[in-house]
Amino acid sequence: MDIAFVNRSRFLVACEDSIRQDRAELEAGRKVRIELGKGGYRGRVVVTIHPGDSASFGSDWMAADETQFPARIKAAATALLHCGCVGQFEVAHADGALHIRCVPDETGKTKKNDRGHTVYLVSCVGQKLGESSLAKDLYVSDWFKKARSYVEATGYPWFILSAEYGLVAPDQRIAPYEKTLNAMTAGERRQWASKVITQLDEAMPGLTHAVFLAGQRYREFLASHLESRKVAVAVPMEGLRIGEQLSWLSRRRGKRRLS
User: Fold this and answer.
1) What's the pTM value of the predicted model, to 2 decimals?
2) How many CB atoms lie within 10 A of CB 239?
3) Which of 1, 105, 120, 189 has the lowest CB atom count within 10 Å?
């Protein structure tokens, strides 16, 4: 049965943090334990995170009613998506703790998720320094600083979506600018997206997963193009207002980098 990913869950932060921190253990075929506190039902489900599908995950759940699917296991599946994990995983819950492990393929090997195939894409912001700087230092809004802290802690490659320059590497030196996608026509935004796609193809060949920390104007043509190529697209803050995004990022910032 296919189960829809969750947009919000009080268990997401703990699941995402544990998966990021213990990614090496997970990829080595060992169980990752996540303490969620008392409550919840006992259960064991094999979930399948499909490349290119950010709407739902596969499962061996046998009950007819999807609404009865365990909330903690659903949060774990969503966290796997957000962390760029694809493939099959056994997720079990008992006594307030989740256990997650990769399901071996037919050869008996667990599937590794190459960090070079996952990218985080962060939108530019209006608040900038007044002089040429490394891109990661040019943008000075509170939102961008928290987004930067979050993506750097994942250990994955990340780029900035710049209205002026397209796809920008964090250590690329660029000059400040005033251009914004909000002032562009739909045709101009299509041209911008086409440029970014070309740059992304060069920077991340073999891309399988993209996580956007960016608004609709930045995603509209990029996400659909990536999905048409079976690249899994995640937008973990979709639907959150700016204050809620700041809170979401604050709860996750500064976590330990992947080993």
Assistant:
1) 0.64
2) 9
3) 105
Closest of 94, 97, 100 to residue 46, by C-alpha: 100
pLDDT score recorded for residue 118: 85
Is residue 190 within 8 A of residue 154, CB to CB? The reply is no
Residue 35 to residues 5, 134, 200, Cα–Cα distance (Å)? 21, 39, 37
**127 vs 120: CA distance, rounded Å:** 21
Q: How far apart are CA 102 and CA 90, in angstroms?
A: 6
Percent helix / strand / coil, the chain, rounded to 5: 35, 25, 40
Q: How far apart are CA 83 and CA 151, in angstroms?
A: 11
CA distance 167 to 4: 31
The two three-digit tokens of residue 146, written as one number: 């928290």
For 13-63, how does the pLDDT look when each residue is reduced to its tens digit (9 = 90+)?
A: 899 888 888 877 887 888 999 999 888 888 899 999 886 677 889 999 887
